[in-house]
Specification:
CATH topology: Rossmann fold
Number of helices: 8
Shape: globular
CATH class: Alpha Beta
Number of domains: 1
Distance between the termini: 30 Å
Strand order of the largest sheet: 3-2-1-4-5-6-7
CATH architecture: 3-Layer(aba) Sandwich
Bound molecules: 1,4-dihydronicotinamide adenine dinucleotide
Structural class: alpha/beta
CATH superfamily: NAD(P)-binding Rossmann-like Domain
Number of strands: 7
Low-confidence stretches: none
Mean pLDDT: 96
Radius of gyration: 18 Å
């Protein structure tokens, strides 16, 4: 099958699609023939995405922390557009802080999006997919879920929970033909990454990227062996592979897309 028709006739829901990795995932699905329901809490960002993709992309504002809104949106999409073949959890937030200064509300907000949001969307999609005996769910987690990072306890813990949740769900639904996998990116060039660099006091994007690539033993970071920061499209490629029929025998997998930063084989 040619790459631009791989998802022809398929319907994919993407959260966090207004910018960054989510927008790259949405664009990649459209480019390969899918119809995409692009969701985000940022309605203006969604409108910008929609302006570039008048065909086969429907935007719907959605806050993934609200379980009733998620259920209502998925029900409405299935009724008015069609059955979901793919659901991709990309929405995420990062509050960086050492644990000693971590505020309860930032911990709760982090889990509300990064963990509870994944539950809400995956549950609403999986319920319907198991009835049809087919479907694929991909959660974008983080390589911070698998390796301790300073200043990232809440984020890393929320992502580790999302990874384990996705695997447990995958186990429950495997016999019903539904696959559940995670993609764990390392540093990727998006607003989230640039905000981290700004917090660290850097205004020079290239210098900040170089420091991440070279690593920093003071914070126990070994750098990025492949010598580059990921583009959002690099992460989108991995998501599309796992969502596709090319990965039909892959489930409960956690695919690292971090240029070797966590030294995984
Ligand atoms: P980003 O900050 O550029 O975009 C995140 C999107 O999620 C935004 O459009 C935002 O409006 C949306 N969002 C946030 N909370 C939401 C909510 N409650 N409901 C609906 N939408 C919501 O972030 P980026 O970099 O594109 O990250 C995407 C995912 O990849 C996140 O889950 C992030 O944790 C993960 N990731 C990013 C890395 C990076 O270096 N950029 C590295 C590892 C993981």
């Amino acid at each position: 099958m040619s790459p631009d028709t791989e998802f022809r006739g398929r319907l994919a829901l993407v959260t966090g699609a207004a910018r960054g990795i989510g927008a790259a995932v949405a664009r990649a699905f459209v480019a390969r023939g899918a119809h995409v329901i692009a969701t985000d809490r940022d309605a203006q960002g969604l409108d910008r995405l929609a302006a570039d993709h008048p065909d086969r992309l429907t935007v719907r504002p959605l806050d993934v922390t609200d379980p009733e809104a998620v259920e209502a949106l998925v029900a409405d999409v299935e009724r008015t557009v069609g059955p979901l073949d793919v659901a991709v959890n990309v929405a995420g937030i990062l509050h960086s802080s050492p644990v000693s200064a971590l505020r309860d509300e930032d911990w709760a907000a982090t889990f509300a999006v990064n963990t509870n949001g994944v539950l809400h969307v995956s549950r609403a999609a999986a319920r319907r997919m198991v009835e049809r005996g087919t479907g694929s769910i991909v959660t974008v987690a983080s390589n911070a879920a698998g390796i301790p990072r300073t200043g990232m306890a809440a984020y890393a813990a929320s992502k580790a929970a999302a990874v384990m949740f996705t695997k447990c769900l995958g186990l429950e639904v495997a016999a019903r033909g539904v696959r559940c996998n995670t993609v764990s990116p390392g540093s990727t060039d998006t607003d989230m990454q640039r905000a981290l660099w700004a917090e660290a006091g850097s205004t020079d994007r290239d210098a900040a990227a170089r420091r991440v690539i070279e690593g920093d033993l003071a914070t126990h970071r070994t750098g990025i062996p492949l010598g580059r920061i990921a583009a959002p499209e690099d992460v989108a490629e991995a998501v599309l592979f796992l969502a596709s029929d090319r990965a039909r025998h892959i489930t409960l997998h956690d695919l690292y897309v971090d240029g070797g930063a966590t030294l995984r084989a």
